[in-house]
Amino acid sequence: MRKAFLQLHVAIFLAGFTGPLGRLITLNEGLLVWYRMGITTVTLFGWLLVARQFFRISFKEWLKITGVGTIVALHWVLFYGSIKYANISIALVCFSAIGFFTAFVEPWIERRRIDFLEVLFGSIAILGIYLIFHFDPQYKVGIILGILSSLLAAIFPVLNKRLLKFHTPQIVTTYEMAGGFLLLSLALPFYLERFPPDHLLPGLQDWAWLLVLSWLCTVLAFNLSLTALKKISPFTVNLSYNLEPIYGILLAFLIYQENKYLSSGFYLGFALILLTVVLQTYRLSKSRFRKS
Fold it and tell me: Where are the domains of the chain?
């Protein structure tokens, strides 16, 4: 269990860089995610072939895995859209609504009773987001996109938990990235017609950041997270990902000085979200102590 938590938090630390990288890369959100998933897909398929770990799966299983990949793709597009329409800090804080949504999504999919403590912790995070929304209404569009992004982010770990009973993390990650890339390839012409970008091709600097985003923040982080998910519940994984905003916001403060543009409402909301992480961590540690 300790190893699983270490893997999870390394994945979360790497994920914390995705926000700043999303701002560094000058492509619009649709193209950014398309390139990210394309590079990741080619990398993963190449790795599986070289390691001789690649094998075919049934069409039914392929549909299941690639279906989850489309959810991942939509989540990323909304997340980077939130950054473009607001800023890194706002997008990452809105991501914290994932705990609230998971408290309902996981029991619904797994057909178990709702844990009202999970609902309480998730509701505290939602209150934190409301305080930010109340004090910083100029970020309305970015906040809405961020909350929709967190809703989708609450769904795919629960579905991944089921997939990992039958497939390795490497196979799940590879086919999910391929599924998301396929969806975006079909949808991108219509998306770009509706939201015309400044440019279609990345510059040299964009390519460098895209490789970092794809190899470290996607391939490595995704595999670590899925491996940890074998032993940790989806709610705990999702609530633990509330630490991602902490890492990402600190980087945004350091690199872009975003703290100059945020009101007191942001810090109050952020404190409430941090409280949910502390309470859930305490709850889990106390539960493990009783079992030992």
Answer: 2-291
